[in-house]
Specification:
alpha+beta, Beta-Lactamase, Arc Repressor Mutant, subunit A, 2 domains, 9 helices, 4 strands, about 45% helix
């Protein structure tokens, strides 16, 4: 983990995105299969990501679309350590089986914090159940601190890789905040169209995405382009 932290610090100094290989080294140091991390709390979801593999990005998308999961809970400021996801089905009745379908059996979510303020989450996952062992939890907190500094630096300087709104982040990349911009725009449009609060509009958008088996960003893009309108009687 000391090597990983040095690489992260070096990347921040150079103003460069963290390569996928560094995320792989971090996952190996923690004894997990993948990691994703991002800035953003509450309904806005993650706006930057840093991860090792496709499953990491899929877990991020699941939590944002469903509005539940350990990463969502960790934004309150406390670590959420799930050694056996099967035992938490009642806690996250929709997210837990969806994550299990991806082959995930253990999840560890840590808040990204500046002082007492939570600004995002780091999520590590593994295909086998069991806790973090042999000092891995302490390493995970050290990693979270380093990733917080890196992501905030990348967001403030605009470094990272651009992509189209609604696209899934590539592993090891840190795209700008435009990843969720259309979700906010679509939520505002639905709120105005239906005369409901922004919070209810987001719930309706998430429900439609879940019912269609699509990512919320994809549904939001349709709403903004006026290809889709959520009526009062929408499912």
């Amino acid at each position: 983990m000391a090597v990983v932290l040095a690489l992260l610090d070096g990347g921040r100094e150079r103003g460069a995105s963290v390569p996928q290989a560094v995320a792989g080294k971090a996952a190996a140091a923690l004894g997990v299969d993948g990691i994703c991390a991002g800035l953003g709390t509450g309904p806005s979801g993650l706006v930057l990501s840093w991860g090792q593999e496709a499953v990491s990005a899929q877990l991020e998308d699941l939590q944002f679309t469903l509005g539940q999961g350990p990463g969502v809970d960790a934004t309150a400021g406390a670590a959420v350590l799930v050694a056996n996801l099967a035992a938490e089905a009642a806690r996250w009745p929709v997210f837990a089986p969806a994550a299990a379908a991806l082959g995930v059996r253990a999840l560890f979510a840590l808040p990204l914090r500046i002082g007492a303020i939570s600004v995002g989450t780091l999520l590590a996952h593994r295909a086998t159940p069991g806790p973090l062992i042999d000092g891995a939890l302490a390493d995970a907190f050290a990693l979270a601190d380093a990733v917080t500094v890196l992501l905030i630096h990348q967001q403030s300087t605009g470094t990272g890789h651009h992509r189209r709104a609604g696209d899934r982040p590539a592993p090891g990349r840190a795209p700008p905040a435009t990843y969720r911009a259309q979700v906010h725009q679509a939520t505002g449009m639905i709120s105005a169209q239906l005369g409901v609060s922004v919070a209810e509009a987001l719930v309706r958008l998430r429900a439609h995405a879940y019912a269609d088996g699509r990512l919320i960003a994809q549904v939001a893009a349709d709403v903004v382009a006026r290809r889709l309108r959520l009526d009062q009687d929408d499912r």
